[in-house]
UniProtKB/TrEMBL annotation:
<protein>
    <submittedName>
        <fullName>Uncharacterized membrane protein (DUF485 family)</fullName>
    </submittedName>
</protein>
<feature type="region of interest" description="Disordered">
    <location>
        <begin position="1"/>
        <end position="23"/>
    </location>
</feature>
<feature type="transmembrane region" description="Helical">
    <location>
        <begin position="75"/>
        <end position="97"/>
    </location>
</feature>
<feature type="transmembrane region" description="Helical">
    <location>
        <begin position="41"/>
        <end position="63"/>
    </location>
</feature>
<keyword id="KW-0812">Transmembrane</keyword>
<dbReference type="Pfam" id="PF04341">
    <property type="entry name" value="DUF485"/>
</dbReference>
<dbReference type="InterPro" id="IPR007436">
    <property type="entry name" value="DUF485"/>
</dbReference>
<keyword id="KW-1133">Transmembrane helix</keyword>
<keyword id="KW-0472">Membrane</keyword>
């Protein structure tokens, strides 16, 4: 009885890492660097956005006259700051995607390749 060999040039099946492989990988400098870079981006960006959102809510609750200041036509400061919340959300998302593509994904792919073998 013969075992089927993959055609020449075909990629081997990825191996399935054991739970211990994952634990061991978490202790490596590569994984620690990946985690450090992720946290270095996410925590400051989350803090920025939460502070920005809290300022908006507090202005809405306590600075009625300021938020009601007409900028032009029926558009007031409160409406512009509310719309800026959406703009900020989309901007942060775009910035994160660029950051992840440049900094996180290559490192994560390298770690995955170490665990599972070459990607097909």
């Amino acid at each position: 009885m013969t075992t089927a060999q993959p055609p020449s040039g075909a990629h081997p099946e990825p191996r399935t890492p054991s739970p211990q492989d994952f634990v061991d990988m978490q202790a490596t400098p590569e994984f620690q660097e990946l985690k450090k870079r992720l946290r270095g981006f996410v925590f400051p960006m989350a803090a920025f956005f939460l502070i920005w959102y809290a300022v908006y809510v507090l202005l809405g609750a306590y600075a009625h006259d300021f938020m009601a200041t007409t900028v032009f036509g029926n558009i007031n400061v409160g409406l512009l700051l509310g719309l800026a919340q959406f703009v900020t959300t989309f901007a942060i998302t775009g910035i994160y995607v660029k950051f992840a593509n440049r900094e996180l994904d290559p490192r994560a792919a390298k770690i995955r390749e170490e665990l599972e073998g070459p990607l097909t």
